[in-house]
Design a protein that fits this description.
Layout lengths: L1 H33 L4 H12 L8 H26 L1
Helix pairs in contact: 1-3, 2-3
């Protein structure tokens, strides 16, 4: 049992982590593409702030910020995938 944990488990993790990370990246991209999780709230906040008189004219910057956050998350997950694989 101990040999399994010390020998087989690290070898198995070395093979499983890159594909698991790839699945996580695909899941994140799919959920934001369908706007089910997270992005709806984020874009909803942008739409609500665009209607506020104090923030009129700043909606383009807000959408650029939203895209930047999305890109940073996807890029960092993708770089982690290449480093771990």
């Amino acid at each position: 049992m101990l040999a399994s944990i010390l020998v087989v488990l690290p070898q198995a993790l070395r093979h499983v982590i890159p594909s698991l990370n790839s699945c996580c990246v695909a899941l994140f991209k799919d959920t934001s593409l369908v706007i089910i999780v997270g992005l709806l709230d984020f874009s909803g906040m942008i739409k609500a702030s665009a209607q506020n008189p104090k923030w009129l004219g700043y909606d383009v910057e807000a959408y650029v910020f939203c895209v930047l956050i999305y890109w940073i998350i996807c890029f960092s997950m993708n770089q982690y995938h290449y480093v771990s694989g």
